[in-house]
Amino acid sequence: MLIDDEKRMLDLVALYLKPHDYICSKADSGKQALDLLESEVFDLVLLDIMMPDMDGFEVCRNIREFSNVPIIMLTAREQQEDIVKGLRLGADDYMTKPFGEEELLARMEALLRRTIPAKRIELKGLVWEEDRFELSYNHQLIRLTPKEFSMLGLLMKNPNKVFERDRLLELVWGFDSETEGRTVDSHVRNVREKVRQAGFPVDEHFQTVWGIGYKWIN
């Protein structure tokens, strides 16, 4: 999530990050950012301080009322008291503008290494292992395509959260994907059938939210 009232800065940072496989959502106000953060899942927030109506300090304070998402503050203000204030309000790191692309990427990667979601998820004998790119049930390997594996992992990492089809397309197929929603439905059917054939009660956990999308129930 990129939060800055300057469209040029939002576009520039998104341009920096896209070749490194980051999917960026943009917000040009604190209110817009908070609305998105309350309704969607993000791995990291890049937050500007100098914004009208609601500055970055207030946005940070509000985020920490409902989320532990990592926050890096990006700002032209480099006074020590501002840095201390941001960190005490819950920011995890602080960078001053202008900043170098490589330093930004390094700080993001370092923070994500400490906060990345679980790479191994287990439920009733069903095991999803990201590093090994394997899904198994009672030690029986279930062969999934890369998109099927990524989609299932996203849902399992966020139990009880409803993902709209368009959001799944964005997160699994890529930000600029023109793939149609029925492709998501097709992949869901394939995953369910493969997991069901292995003996796992998939229909109890991989559920359809009619007219919206899908969710995983633990």
UniProtKB/TrEMBL annotation:
PROSITE patterns hit by this protein: OMPR_PHOB, RESPONSE_REGULATORY
Segment forming the signal sequence: none
Pfam families: Response_reg (PF00072), Trans_reg_C (PF00486)
Keyword Transcription: yes
Portion annotated as DNA-binding: 118-218
Record-linked SUPFAM superfamilies: C-terminal effector domain of the bipartite response regulators (SSF46894), CheY-like (SSF52172)
Membrane-crossing residue ranges in chain numbering: none
Chain ranges of the Response regulatory domain: 1-112
Keyword line: DNA-binding, Phosphoprotein, Transcription, Transcription regulation, Two-component regulatory system
Modified residues annotated as 4-aspartylphosphate in this record: 48
Domain OmpR/PhoB-type span(s) in chain numbering: 118-218
Sample GO molecular function, one term: DNA binding
PANTHER family tied to this protein: ALKALINE PHOSPHATASE SYNTHESIS TRANSCRIPTIONAL REGULATORY PROTEIN PHOP, REGULATOR OF RPOS
Protein name listed in UniProt: DNA-binding response regulator
